[in-house]
Amino acid sequence: MTATEDIHDLTLKSIRVLIADLVQQFNGGHPGGAMGMAAIGIALWKYTLEFSPNDPGYFNRDRFVLSNGHTCLFQYVFQHLIGYKHMTMDQLKSYHSSRLDSLCPGHPEIEIPGIEITTGALGQGISNAVGLAIASKNLQETYNKPGFPVVSNHTFCMVGDACLQEGVTMEAVSLAGHLGLNNLTVIYDNNQISCDGSVDLTNTEDINAKFKATNWNVIEVFNGSEDVLEVAKALAESKLSTDKPTLINVHTNIGIGSNVENNCSAHGAAFGEEEVDRLHIINGFDPGLKYHIPAEVYEFFGDLVDKGDAYTQKWSKLVAEYVFNYPELGVDFQRRVNGELPNDWKNYIPSKFSASPTPSRASSGSVVNPLAKNINNFIVGSADLSPSVNLIWDKKVDFQNPQVNTSCGINGDYSGRYVHYGIREHAMAAISNGIAAFNKGTFIPVTSTFLIFYLYAAPAVRYGALSDLKVIHVATHDSIGMGEDGPTHQPIEIAALFRSMPNLNYIRPCDSEEVAGAWEIALEANGPTILSLSRHKLNQYPANSKRELVKKGAYIFKDIESPVLNIIGVGAEMGFAYESAELLTKYGLPSRVISFPSQKIFEEQSTEYKRSVLQRGQIPTIVIEAYAPNGWERYANAGFSMHTFGKSLPGNAVYEYFGYKVDSIVERIKSYMIRVQKDKSILWEFQDLNC
Amino acid sequence: MTATEDIHDLTLKSIRVLIADLVQQFNGGHPGGAMGMAAIGIALWKYTLEFSPNDPGYFNRDRFVLSNGHTCLFQYVFQHLIGYKHMTMDQLKSYHSSRLDSLCPGHPEIEIPGIEITTGALGQGISNAVGLAIASKNLQETYNKPGFPVVSNHTFCMVGDACLQEGVTMEAVSLAGHLGLNNLTVIYDNNQISCDGSVDLTNTEDINAKFKATNWNVIEVFNGSEDVLEVAKALAESKLSTDKPTLINVHTNIGIGSNVENNCSAHGAAFGEEEVDRLHIINGFDPGLKYHIPAEVYEFFGDLVDKGDAYTQKWSKLVAEYVFNYPELGVDFQRRVNGELPNDWKNYIPSKFSASPTPSRASSGSVVNPLAKNINNFIVGSADLSPSVNLIWDKKVDFQNPQVNTSCGINGDYSGRYVHYGIREHAMAAISNGIAAFNKGTFIPVTSTFLIFYLYAAPAVRYGALSDLKVIHVATHDSIGMGEDGPTHQPIEIAALFRSMPNLNYIRPCDSEEVAGAWEIALEANGPTILSLSRHKLNQYPANSKRELVKKGAYIFKDIESPVLNIIGVGAEMGFAYESAELLTKYGLPSRVISFPSQKIFEEQSTEYKRSVLQRGQIPTIVIEAYAPNGWERYANAGFSMHTFGKSLPGNAVYEYFGYKVDSIVERIKSYMIRVQKDKSILWEFQDLNC
């Protein structure tokens, strides 16, 4: 063996044994994949990636995403070896412990320095990686000048057999191939083992051919658990691709060296004390010596901190010269690097709107399109519903491989900021998470489709919330009032999911003014937002709706003297609430109207404010919304809601079919109020008034 | 032209003009795809499919699924032409109307005779079709004998460009290829147009190569909007495949003949009166004559009713002879055809369980595995979590292509009833919908993965609910108590989605006895059920839990004299409720315990029963569950719930971290009760006691 081979060998053995030790410690975790991938790790961090341990957030770093997140020890152990200060051996030992200060959770989390994005559910990471590559590509095309490659990073992503079976992966892969993202390398840890056993229990496709059919380069490495240089060569080759993303199909051995090598038992359990001892011995280590990394191994990675410092210094210098040479572009670039919007961004939001009935999807377009047109942080796209979601601005340029000439003649380039995601809702949301994760605030990705189809995207929406990524989801056609497409397309239970999802703002504005407020919230938020918008025209309430008060979650929309009840109106169904309240007031039941665009934001308000709005215990509150009621019971004593799926009828007819008609609503509320007068105890039990 | 070509030509023109008329009528709908696919329709219903208009449910019929459901006029118009009695011209004219008796909704719905399954959201139908093919294959292998092909049907599925972009499609396609389902033909309406414009805006992959890489036959037809016989030939050829499913890539022209032919404007809007008139004229029809089908066209399809009758008669005779020759198998087959379980199915469910702490996933296994082993209606599978979900029974046989020899040596054949779905949660649920839709009750598909990953599968779970398909989803690892895998794997908001989804039972049993009750509910239900089960061991309550009372949704778990409060315990968190109640009672606050496995089932009970359980207005109720609270406010005045994502810690530690510890729960409840005593008005506002 050469000296290089020697040190690779020692390093591989050290890492494998360390991983076995760490998993044995608390008798839990995922050792096999991490062990099998050790050679890939050396090839990546020693020989390929540009990064800086002293500055994990270095803007132009190569991004690395661990899509097979359960192998996180792989990344933690390498973080330790390559000099990330936070990742001490003591921290490594916190894996699977009950230590609250642990930086080694069961799956990688974005809050940990050097982790680009939280992964775990399979298929998310690779889709995020496509987003990271899109972000970089767009910045390159927007800012780079001859001699000034201020953005030049590459994105690398590890996937396992499992990630490649997930639908979201195949969506993202298809789009990445179409877009020709040559700055993306996916490394496939091909160990042919998953939880159930060998992969051929369920998958016998030709992965290489499948990727080639989807416009990818494919490189194959056969001895991938041992041959560091061969992997490094493939990684280097992938960076030279001119017009395609690259899949490196690396054949590895899960649980290499253990008695369960190449067996599914190596995947998710400790090996047992005896076997760990044996592993120490066959790898040349003393079984008594746990958590041991030889000095030579530390030394082998010892140059990486200095190299990292050199990268960041060189880049800072390059940027300084760039700003000097291209002052206007340079200032803009620095703003993006700082993750800022132009100070005057709010000026693009209309201060007033037409008073004629307007679909809230159109209101949304009138708010965001001037922003998207003028502010290059925005990168907007649709899952093939561009004509329906009102997100196209004048002279938009598509983010597109400039080599593609489309049949419909709408072409683009990599500086474009409108993405045709295709009918790939899940990948759209996951890719947008990746774009947002490139660097906080540099991009504001906007996605769009019908609210119902965000159920396809829900796992990615969840990861955005979990990772606090500012992605804005424009969800139109958000009520049964969307009409004839019928129950398959009418959302009933979708809001209940998103209202209960932590860290996510789900906002359902009732008119253009509230839409403006909702967009302001979304743009000022840290995490993701879903804007829930109507297909059909909604009445406008210039005298009642207030964008500033949307930021309270709920507010008194129409007050009245000596009210005897509150009616909560929400989004597309505000009209029913408003008109019912007017009629009830006329009939001697003075009714206040409360607009309630966001439960989550309302919960964040003071008790005093909440009480001033709802007057709980003083007067009954009735909610009108054409969704499942779940959650409204917190604010209302009774309500009109949906307990079945919808129906294929024109918008007005479907509302009426389910009892959403002012006359009948008013009658039912009157009879409810009579019942309440007779027996106050019914206030204790939420009443479904249209059941 | 030959006479055949003549009648094809007239039929094509009649259909295209009729579709234009029907969409123009109410100025809405999807004409283009249906027009472009007309030749495929002739090839299918005139020349290929075995079906019976007089008996739409004929057991051995070829199944046809319209995965691109928005082109539903295609199917409605052909139903009319081929003699389905319900589909009159008057009914066709109800498309997009406000008629409540319409059988022509905006997307095909299973309740309509001849519609195999509800489709609409893209990718569902093709995945359902894979399920239909699996069902048929399994029956063939189980029952057919030489000379007695009692099950011999083929499954055909139409897809559009859009379906093929959806991830769930690629999951189902990959599995269908692996399984070698030669009884499945997918017909690709390749018009290269989607809503945004030409498909090459977002997709430039080589579909044929992609399918071939996934073990599919591919046949290409180029003149697919005109050449009926070429399509019919391809369909016939696909039926001869010996070991692979077939994709027929049929090139068509969306909106053929219209001024928006091959343009996205043809997709989802009426053409306008003038253009419809022009379409009449160029196709040789009088513009004044709307909704007109020439007599020759009716005549052309006139033989199909008799042919259908002949099919059903022949099959009935075949089955009668089969029963005579194979009496035991024949009786079993007839039971399956009738969609029945053996009468004694409940005997397989244990009447008692061990009193030692047991994970409810294990309880579930002990209930269902004897059923699945002994009753061949069950077809069980997992999304690569077989070792974790406790669904493997002794001597199970995998549903597997017998030609595949797996590396791990676990092989199977088509009579097997355990499916390795792979890491394809969405397809697993959608395929299971298809299996259930084969014939009501013939199969009971069981799926399994962690609860959190049912979010990937949620759109398909929804379609099962919408179509009333009895599929049972075994969702394990259903609480933060699952531990170290962390927030990516700990469900917080998932229950809120499924509790608010119409027609779906979401049941969270607290111990083995309740698990037995939950399975009984699932097996007696009409629609789908999610069983929400723990990874970790749960205490058993033989004196308290009652399987019969699970069927009430909630019940008094432990009563007490003169209670001052109710504590609701749910599923894996029952222990906290039960022990807290004991301690509080000891401390002078006599506390009843309510077990609450299902909100939806509880809502179906009488008001009297609900009041007897909850005593709303008499004593406060506190719920303890480690999920988002949304929905519990209906039943409780206060609660312990989750308002953030979870944390990567061992199970006990993560519970404790979020305040789920008996001591601290008791302290908080005591202080809550003191506050209530001082000021009853706080009962009006739901209190989050661990915030």
Automatic annotation (TrEMBL), chains A, B:
<dbReference type="InterPro" id="IPR009014">
    <property type="entry name" value="Transketo_C/PFOR_II"/>
</dbReference>
<comment type="function">
    <text>Catalyzes the transfer of a two-carbon ketol group from a ketose donor to an aldose acceptor, via a covalent intermediate with the cofactor thiamine pyrophosphate.</text>
</comment>
<feature type="active site" description="Proton donor">
    <location>
        <position position="425"/>
    </location>
</feature>
<keyword id="KW-0786">Thiamine pyrophosphate</keyword>
<dbReference type="InterPro" id="IPR005478">
    <property type="entry name" value="Transketolase_bac-like"/>
</dbReference>
<comment type="similarity">
    <text>Belongs to the transketolase family.</text>
</comment>
<comment type="subunit">
    <text>Homodimer.</text>
</comment>
<keyword id="KW-0106">Calcium</keyword>
<dbReference type="InterPro" id="IPR033247">
    <property type="entry name" value="Transketolase_fam"/>
</dbReference>
<dbReference type="InterPro" id="IPR055152">
    <property type="entry name" value="Transketolase-like_C_2"/>
</dbReference>
<dbReference type="GO" id="GO:0005634">
    <property type="term" value="C:nucleus"/>
</dbReference>
<feature type="binding site">
    <location>
        <position position="361"/>
    </location>
    <ligand>
        <name>substrate</name>
    </ligand>
</feature>
<dbReference type="InterPro" id="IPR049557">
    <property type="entry name" value="Transketolase_CS"/>
</dbReference>
<feature type="binding site">
    <location>
        <position position="388"/>
    </location>
    <ligand>
        <name>substrate</name>
    </ligand>
</feature>
<dbReference type="InterPro" id="IPR029061">
    <property type="entry name" value="THDP-binding"/>
</dbReference>
<dbReference type="InterPro" id="IPR005475">
    <property type="entry name" value="Transketolase-like_Pyr-bd"/>
</dbReference>
<dbReference type="InterPro" id="IPR005474">
    <property type="entry name" value="Transketolase_N"/>
</dbReference>
<feature type="binding site">
    <location>
        <position position="489"/>
    </location>
    <ligand>
        <name>substrate</name>
    </ligand>
</feature>
<feature type="binding site">
    <location>
        <position position="191"/>
    </location>
    <ligand>
        <name>thiamine diphosphate</name>
    </ligand>
</feature>
<feature type="binding site">
    <location>
        <position position="30"/>
    </location>
    <ligand>
        <name>substrate</name>
    </ligand>
</feature>
<keyword id="KW-0479">Metal-binding</keyword>
<feature type="site" description="Important for catalytic activity">
    <location>
        <position position="267"/>
    </location>
</feature>
<feature type="domain" description="Transketolase-like pyrimidine-binding">
    <location>
        <begin position="358"/>
        <end position="540"/>
    </location>
</feature>
<dbReference type="InterPro" id="IPR020826">
    <property type="entry name" value="Transketolase_BS"/>
</dbReference>
<feature type="binding site">
    <location>
        <position position="191"/>
    </location>
    <ligand>
        <name>Mg(2+)</name>
    </ligand>
</feature>
<feature type="binding site">
    <location>
        <position position="267"/>
    </location>
    <ligand>
        <name>thiamine diphosphate</name>
    </ligand>
</feature>
<keyword id="KW-0808">Transferase</keyword>
<protein>
    <recommendedName>
        <fullName>Transketolase</fullName>
        <ecNumber>2.2.1.1</ecNumber>
    </recommendedName>
</protein>
<dbReference type="GO" id="GO:0046872">
    <property type="term" value="F:metal ion binding"/>
</dbReference>
<dbReference type="GO" id="GO:0005829">
    <property type="term" value="C:cytosol"/>
</dbReference>
<feature type="binding site">
    <location>
        <position position="193"/>
    </location>
    <ligand>
        <name>Mg(2+)</name>
    </ligand>
</feature>
<dbReference type="Pfam" id="PF02779">
    <property type="entry name" value="Transket_pyr"/>
</dbReference>
<feature type="binding site">
    <location>
        <position position="477"/>
    </location>
    <ligand>
        <name>substrate</name>
    </ligand>
</feature>
<dbReference type="Pfam" id="PF00456">
    <property type="entry name" value="Transketolase_N"/>
</dbReference>
<feature type="binding site">
    <location>
        <begin position="120"/>
        <end position="122"/>
    </location>
    <ligand>
        <name>thiamine diphosphate</name>
    </ligand>
</feature>
<feature type="binding site">
    <location>
        <position position="161"/>
    </location>
    <ligand>
        <name>Mg(2+)</name>
    </ligand>
</feature>
<feature type="binding site">
    <location>
        <position position="485"/>
    </location>
    <ligand>
        <name>substrate</name>
    </ligand>
</feature>
<feature type="binding site">
    <location>
        <position position="70"/>
    </location>
    <ligand>
        <name>thiamine diphosphate</name>
    </ligand>
</feature>
<feature type="binding site">
    <location>
        <position position="535"/>
    </location>
    <ligand>
        <name>substrate</name>
    </ligand>
</feature>
<dbReference type="Pfam" id="PF22613">
    <property type="entry name" value="Transketolase_C_1"/>
</dbReference>
<feature type="binding site">
    <location>
        <position position="453"/>
    </location>
    <ligand>
        <name>thiamine diphosphate</name>
    </ligand>
</feature>
<feature type="binding site">
    <location>
        <position position="267"/>
    </location>
    <ligand>
        <name>substrate</name>
    </ligand>
</feature>
